[in-house]
Amino acid sequence: WNSLSWRRDALVSLPVKGRTCRVVDDGGNDLPCQVVGKGRNRRILAAVSDIPSVGCKTIELLPSKSALGPSHFVMDKLKNMGGTVKRNEVELGRVFAQPGGTVKPNEVRLDCGSSEHGQVFDLTVPPIISGVTEYSPVTVRASRGGIVMENEHLRLRIDKRGEISQLLDKDAGRRLVKGGEAVNRLELYRDNPGAWDAWDIDQPYKTTPVRIGPARQVEVIADGPLEARVAVARKVGRSDLYQEIVLRAGSRRIDFETRVDWRETHRLLKAAFPVDLSSATLRGEIQFGYVERPTHRNTEFEKARYEWPAQKWADLSEAHYGVAVLNDCKYGYDILDGVLRLSLLRAPVAPDGQADKGEHAFTYALLVHNCGFAESGVVRAAYELNAPVTVETGRCAGGEYSLLQVSGGTVVVDTVKIAEDGDDLIVRLYESAGGAAKIRLRVAVPVKDASECDMLETPGRKLRVSKDNAVTLAFRAFEIKTIRFACEK
């Protein structure tokens, strides 16, 4: 089920039934899959493409005659080459996007079982197909100085501290981390405000950093082809922090799935992103739009704004390039000298002496976009992080269903609900990028009439409804519109 107002691709997680299974779409076509986890935590990831907007798509989990490895389409490729090795006799090594040695790019090294006595096959791996998009598998490998994760867009190196010491945008040929710096650098500070302990962060906190030691664990826990994960475990003061760094095939987003057993007092934890970009302003999301803030502190007024709120994202962009930090529940940011920081946790003691102590689970992400902000998809990426595709049992008639469709890239449907004073359908939309837009909004139910209304749902200007139950709307920058559909019974 996709609750957002655009069609999207997604990895969905399903329970593994027995030793073997496969996932197919409504037409019976096999979907690219990957098994992750062990024991009771064993799951199967399936790449589902083109899930309808505010709608659903049917997929089916079926038993399979053979064991499902990390890349069953590679086994099919070997079989089609006329090889004599059976599926259950082939052990997949690792898929390399750009490996060294004798294995060529986009090829996989297969070490065969007893029937071939260890003979090695080199063969081309077909790209994973996702809707109209083709993309190569994600890979992960150990290398000198850390672990390298790579997909068709990004290559990153995770060092022994569990930080990203190198980040290359392969499409732009651009390195985003300066020498000696690291992205996703955790920073801990003493946090003792003079008053309002649970509400204020005093400016001098930057002068009292607290050292964080090296990671106790940095290891690969998922190695593709759809998703790669590196687990990082460390002590942060008296607290235990566990993080999984996630890179998916075809994605320009790096996720940091985090769990913390927080046991600190008067401490502030931040994640720092020192990226090699030059911009005088930073965009931060607010309700139904964004605001721009300076990245410098040249005036007393700017110096006083050393911590500021944003909702799902903050974006630092040049004219044709940028990065964004996304989050699912952390809304405090600061930026200075090219370092963007996200506030993760605090530890006040008044009025509650145990405030925020205990278990926390949250996700934040770094999105790299090889274009300007308006074309970047930052808004959509942040929504997708906050509203992941969900899986429910059942079957959709016809294989898929969409309650509504919007034909405008920067207009977002924020609310779909039943009217407070009747059975009419209420749809609230807004323009998200700061520019004029013209869209077509279509609903899947028969409509008698439609009108624009105010936030209290009072009907206003009538709208012309087409034969396929659609209306045409024109938006100004950041404009909010609420549409009321009177539907046929």
Structural write-up:
With 489 residues, the protein is mainly beta. The protein is 4% helix and 48% strand. It has 3 helices and 40 strands. A 9-stranded antiparallel beta sheet has the order 19-20-21-22-31-28-27-24-25, covered by helices on one side. It has a 6-stranded antiparallel beta sheet with strand order 18-17-23-30-29-26, with no helix packed on it. Strands 12-13-14-15-16 form a 5-stranded antiparallel beta sheet, with no helix packed on it. A hairpin with a 4-residue loop joins strand 15 and strand 16 (174-175). The longest helix has 9 residues, at 72-80. The protein is globular. It starts with 7 loop residues before the first strand and ends with a strand.
What is the compact description of this entry?
The chain is mainly β.
Morphology: globular
- Provide the residue-averaged pLDDT: 85
What share of the residues does DSSP label as strand, in percent? over 45%
Number of E strands: 40
Count the DSSP helices: 3
Strand order of the largest sheet: 19-20-21-22-31-28-27-24-25
Largest sheet: 9 strands, antiparallel
Structural class: mainly beta
Q: Which radius of gyration do the C-alpha atoms yield? A: 25 Å
Q: Could you state the oligomeric state of the chains shown?
A: single chain
Mind sketching the topology for me?
Layout: E1 8-15, E2 22-25, E3 33-36, E4 43-51, E5 55-57, E6 59-62, H1 72-80, E7 90-95, E8 107-112, E9 120-124, E10 128-130, E11 133-135, E12 139-143, E13 146-150, E14 154-158, E15 164-169, E16 174-175, E17 185-190, E18 209-210, E19 217-223, E20 227-236, E21 239-248, E22 253-262, E23 267-274, E24 281-286, E25 289-294, H2 300-303, E26 308-309, E27 313-317, E28 322-327, E29 332-336, E30 339-346, E31 358-369, H3 378-386, E32 400-402, E33 404-406, E34 411-418, E35 425-431, E36 437-443, E37 447-453, E38 459-463, E39 470-475, E40 480-487
Antiparallel strand pairs: 1-4, 2-6, 3-4, 5-32, 7-8, 8-9, 10-11, 12-13, 13-14, 14-15, 15-16, 17-18, 17-23, 19-20, 20-21, 21-22, 22-31, 23-30, 24-25, 24-27, 26-29, 27-28, 28-31, 29-30, 33-36, 34-35, 35-40, 36-39, 37-38, 37-40
